[in-house]
């Protein structure tokens, strides 16, 4: 097996040495041309004159002028409900065999996002790109002999009329290449178990039979699985069960809030690699070890546009105003949050995916996810993004040497005064008042808009500590455990009332 590992590692390193950095601006221009051409005879393509756009000398500009922005509900109401009903050639040629169920964050009503054969092929190509990038991470040859634990949603996809439905992680896992099946764990039989608790129980029971070298999944659910395995076998850490574990591929949310609590489950640090796989496609992956930023995949069936993330461009419900200006990859800047817009080989057109990003390296097209458009807290001008919240909480963790892997907050009114009420998931014995004071100071020093708001209409900050497990229990009541379900960081007033009632009944 050592020989096999050396061969695989050598092949990856050779491929990496022969690969050259693409011109990302040109790759995006070519991607747009190709997807417009393929979709030109669809009903959407005819409605928005794709053939005429293709004849233009300024395809990107004319595409932006001709096609409006769409969020999920707009695209569903106008177009995708026809795709779901089985109509052909609506927003992409033919009909998709799969629909990804997604609520983005917690929410009981799932969205149905088309997943075409072209998108499945693009996701597989992106996965291969990420594997090739492992040559940059100085991993031993033995790593390439080990098994990979992919903790996603159930692969037992539900049949609905003439298509199958499930979360994107389940769809992807059910379509893994045959040559990968020997490496894939927990294996097809366990992966099909729909009940999260039962699936994790089976993983714990079988854990000692596997030689896991890499993990892949959303941090919050990965931590729960690792803790279950540790508890089941009554060991100190996960390396007592999987001594060759060396890599964790995170995805979907920022890993930094979970870093301290995650590392407590290990005997020693492992390599953490970020990915950006959404229900709408495989968007980016971390290519090199000396950054936590991810490289946009610019030549793989997704065309990107960017709207500066400013309050005047965002509606109160987090949706994007049609008048908001957008730019292409050629004109982006660092130190600026952007609303990410995508057009894809699954027939999403100028689609507001809901995430905000910033560029860390324009030449490499490297980005970092900074939050969600709906998680932008701008009551009384405070202008807080999730990235700024995460950073402020990390400073609190460091100051008191504590762990705060989960949080949520909302703007609330008490005696006609505005407050930000934070719920922090932590087992710390630091007082709520001291945490609130420290967090408030961190936010004021890092964010001038927040500091101005605190001097005017924002009266103060309230902290309530609760056990971490309450967040996963809340997620379970909102949709289901595991998979792509993520915690809402900023809640509306109505949702926050539900949350507070749930917390009071659970503690």
Automatic annotation (TrEMBL):
Listed GO MF terms: acid-amino acid ligase activity
All copies of domain GH3 middle, residue ranges: 297-363
UniProt-listed InterPro entries: GH3, GH3_C, GH3_M
Location of the GH3 C-terminal domain: 390-494
GO cellular component: cytoplasm
Protein name: GH3 auxin-responsive promoter family protein
Organism: Aquimarina algicola
